[in-house]
Write a structure and sequence with these properties.
By secondary structure, the chain is mainly β. It has one domain (46-208): Protein Transport Mog1p, Chain A. Helix content is 10%, strand content 35%. It has helices at residues 125-134, 192-203, and strands at residues 8-10, 13-15, 36-41, 62-65, 70-73, 101-104, 110-118, 140-142, 145-151, 154-163, 168-176, 179-187, 207-208. The strands form three sheets. Strands 3, 6, 7, 8, 9, 10, 11 and 12 form an eight-stranded mixed β-sheet that branches. Strands 4-5-13 form a three-stranded antiparallel β-sheet, with no helix packed on it. It has a two-stranded antiparallel sheet with strand order 1-2. The longest helix is centred in the last third of the chain and has 12 residues, at 192-203. The protein is globular.
């Protein structure tokens, strides 16, 4: 789905990350300009396999992104790293990018990523989500509509992508203050149900810190 990424050390543990394709700035002209938000809420995660459940979230360590002003609870065994440089707000990129905060799982099959960029004052959520649709790599097909949900108490839109290189994704767009946020799970696990459960479990612990 995106450019080649080097293996990185996270804290005291060395986690081998799968190399992936990193898009370097090619505009996805073939992508749909905008998806239409559906009126239904995103389905809640299952209580059986979600790695961050509502009953255990408070006991898990919390990761704080100083650059992007948010915090989430980290599933057991997952690693974390914050972004090292501001994201440009145009292109969604993959694991290994220094512009995204990330939570990689121990097996290297899933990475939860997030970033934020300054947007024009008063920009509607639908416009920001449409920009993220355009910024998704052209090798990925995207669901024709987005579901309404929330991120840290703010309205959000969530949709899915499937990419020809084997990556699946769940992408979310939200607006908080003067920033547009993108929050997504990149996965090669080929398990849509569990991907959604993990994504929802982490999303529910998200909070803005500024």
């Amino acid at each position: 789905m995106w450019g080649r990424a080097q293996k990185r050390a996270f804290g005291s543990a060395l986690i081998g990350m799968a190399t992936v394709a990193l898009m370097t700035g090619c505009t996805s002209s073939g992508n749909q300009a905008r998806t239409q938000a559906a009126s239904t809420q995103a389905p809640p995660p299952s209580s059986t396999t979600t790695q961050v459940s509502t009953t255990t979230a408070s006991t898990l360590p919390e990761f704080v992104s100083k650059l992007y002003g948010f915090a989430v609870r980290v599933p057991q065994g997952w690693s974390t790293y914050d972004a090292e440089a501001p994201w440009g707000g145009k292109y969604i990129v993959g694991p290994g990018s220094t512009h995204f905060a990330a939570l990689p799982d121990p097996g290297g099959t899933r990475t939860l990523m997030a970033a934020a960029a300054t947007i024009p004052a008063g920009m509607p959520l639908a416009d920001w989500q449409a920009a993220m649709v355009r910024g998704t790599p052209s090798v990925c097909s995207q669901s024709p509509s987005a579901e309404t949900t929330t991120l840290g108490g703010e309205p959000a839109l969530v949709w899915t992508v499937k990419c020809s290189d084997g990556f699946d994704g769940i992408q979310l767009a939200a607006v908080h203050g003067d920033r547009g946020y993108v929050f997504y799970l990149a996965s090669t696990a080929n398990d849509d149900a569990q991907d959604r459960q993990i994504f929802e479990g982490i999303r529910q612990t998200f909070r803005f810190t500024n």
